[in-house]
């Protein structure tokens, strides 16, 4: 049990809401379909969790093998405090690279077993989704593509945790695919990608100085960064509005527009960051929960975390509003 807890803790399980919320949302949207299966829905969510944790560990494995984690040491020496240690369980000697590889295989084999059950129950579409997701997930930091080191990591994660994840879970839950889940999954994917992109804008200078290629570094222009940020923040709401007006989404989805002020607030605070990076900003109730805030303030990185939390909470509340709407109107 201690071994299981050790690997779950080191697989960045705190990021699970970024995959769990889209998965739960997909199940809620599939609930009213005639061939809905709760047991297959639960299996699909379990597969998402295992796959997410496994791919996080593969990311550590590939980085450590190539010694890419060294850039974090350079940042620490340069006084960059917003970064957290990566692969510390390896550098401290708590685990070996071989044990990490074995943990990766266990997580992914369990996810594969669940995928096999879903494939036998729902058919070939699940196989396609699984193969594409596995290939792209390993290509995040693995050879030959190493997409996260070409400035494509944010877009890749958004595609995987939005359209791919939600289509796979939805199909597993009800055995069919509907345009409504596609129209919702794209906004969700954009908001997932926005969490990483917001991070990369704030880490633009240190990332650039050590040669880490993110989308912000790839753009290498602060006006262009803000322009792309408008896509990540505002296109989700435009797509939902379009879906409603085209009668592809129910009218009660207009309620999700109540989350739009959070997107505006984050955009405003990111403009302030680019213009005045050291200027303090106040925390407001509409920003949502921010864990260990007093401790964070004590470390002096609240300028970073308040924006990161806001990006995370924007995704969470967006998903939860649509999820609750589906639950309320399905009763």
Automatic annotation (TrEMBL):
Which parts pass through the membrane?
40-58, 100-119, 155-173, 179-204, 224-245, 251-271, 309-329
Q: In which pathway does it act?
A: Quinol/quinone metabolism; menaquinone biosynthesis
The UniProt entry's GO biological process terms, in alphabetical order, are: menaquinone biosynthetic process; vitamin K biosynthetic process
Taxonomically, which superkingdom?
Answer: Bacteria
Broad class of where this protein is predominantly found: membrane
User: Where in or outside the cell?
Assistant: Membrane
Q: Which InterPro entries match?
A: UbiA_prenyltransferase, UbiA_sf, UBIAD1
GO CC annotation: membrane
Keyword field: Cell membrane, Membrane, Menaquinone biosynthesis, Transferase, Transmembrane, Transmembrane helix
Gene Ontology MF terms in the entry:
prenyltransferase activity
Q: Which Gene3D superfamilies match?
A: UbiA prenyltransferase
Q: Where is the signal peptide?
A: none
User: Topology in the membrane?
Assistant: Multi-pass membrane protein
* Annotated protein name in UniProt: 1,4-dihydroxy-2-naphthoate octaprenyltransferase
**Which organism encodes this protein?**
Odoribacter laneus YIT 12061
